[in-house]
Amino acid sequence: MFCRGVKYLFLSVCFLFPQEVQSKSKVCANVFCGAGRECVVTEKGEPSCLCIESCKPHKRSVCGSNSKTYRNHCELHRDACLTGLKIQVAHDGHCQEKKAEQAAASPVVCYVADRNELRHRVIQWLQTEVVPDGWFIKGSNFTDILLKYFKNYDNGDSTLDSSELLKFIQHNDSNVDMQSYADQESNKLLRSLCVDALIELSDENADWKLSFDEFLNCLKPGFNPPEKKCALEDETYEDGAETQVECNRCVCACGNWVCTAMTCTDKTAVVEETEEAGQEMTEEEWSLRVTELNKHQVSLSPKATVGQSPISPDRWVSLEFV
């Protein structure tokens, strides 16, 4: 290498002769430095790997695993070398701004306390209509009152389904009004869900209808409803417990898992650690998942048994949420 000073400019102009270029290529010929590094020749004439001094200016943007956009692959690997961090290519193109993660909305559910409160109000209302026997007229006891309403709302099949039971309860709307939520639509849905919970409470043959005997047992003042828990992966959960399935939230209510039914499109959403994590479930897979959540029910009743839940996923997956 030959260097000479340039007068007045106080600069040195150096010329790299061909033999020195050839010398570098020979010294670094068998040296592999890895991405973001280049081989240089030391003063002793030995090869050494250092971070690339400058990358070529071509633009082919990439997004790094550190969520930073680089002009090209070289710039990414050079930055990794200079900072000493492990940075990988996440994808081609600019990094996208992460959307703020939103907690999954909670489904509208009928908790045990809601179900019991509705039942208590109905019983109180019915008891006001009981008439004791008089001297000359026969009164109406609690069973008589229930039989009267059963016949009034039965469509002729000797059973009350959920819609008929709801109409019966709405007969005295002011006494059974439920205000657990801020909006009226959610409160109406809550009452419907609690009607379903009342049917499940006494539906011995699991046909989602109440015969008169089942109807009577459900509303007997002395009947103490058994407390049921939700089961999941060999563990039991109290009423009100929550779990997450992809972007949907599931709540334990009256011994059943009740889930929202939102489409999970945001890949950054918090997901449950399962084999399907990060993948959107099909409608069939979702139904199977909810069925799995409701597979085992645990009751604290003395005669309780663990078995298949009579509640279908379609009935309990709520599209309403707050």
Please provide a written account of the structure.
The chain has 322 residues and is an alpha+beta fold. The protein has 4 domains: 16-51, no CATH class; 54-96, Wheat Germ Agglutinin (Isolectin 2), domain 1 (2-Layer Sandwich); 104-225, Orthogonal Bundle (Recoverin, domain 1), CATH 1.10.238.10; 227-322, no CATH class. 31% of the residues lie in helices and 17% in strands. The protein has helices at residues 18-27, 73-83, 112-127, 142-153, 162-170, 184-202, 212-219, 283-293, 313-316, and strands at residues 2-6, 11-15, 37-41, 47-51, 62-64, 69-70, 89-92, 228-232, 235-237, 242-245, 248-253, 256-259, 297-299. Strands 6-5-7 form a 3-stranded antiparallel sheet. It has a 3-stranded antiparallel sheet with strand order 9-8-13, with no helix packed on it. It has a 3-stranded antiparallel sheet with strand order 10-11-12, with no helix packed on it. Strand 8 (228-232) and strand 9 form a beta hairpin. Helix 3 (112-127) crosses helix 6 (184-202), helix 5 (162-170) crosses helix 6 (184-202) and helix 6 (184-202) packs across helix 7 (212-219). Mean pLDDT is 75; it is low at 4-21, 267-279 and 296-322.
Keywords:
single chain; 322 residues; Recoverin, domain 1; three-stranded antiparallel sheet; signal; Kazal_dom_sf; Kazal_dom
How many strands appear in the DSSP assignment? 13
**N-end to C-end Cα span:** 76 Å
CATH architecture call of the largest domain: Orthogonal Bundle
Gyration radius from CA atoms, angstroms:
36 Å
CATH class of the largest domain: Mainly Alpha
Strand order of the largest sheet: 6-5-7
Q: Low-confidence segments, ≥5 residues, pLDDT <50?
A: 4-21, 267-279, 296-322
Per CATH, the superfamily of the largest domain is EF-hand
Subcellular location: Secreted
GO cellular component, one term: extracellular space
Subunit structure: Homodimer. Interacts with SCN10A. Interacts with DIP2A; DIP2A may act as a cell surface receptor for FSTL1. Interacts with BMP4. Interacts with CD14; this interaction promotes TL4-mediated signaling cascade.
Domain EF-hand: 190-225
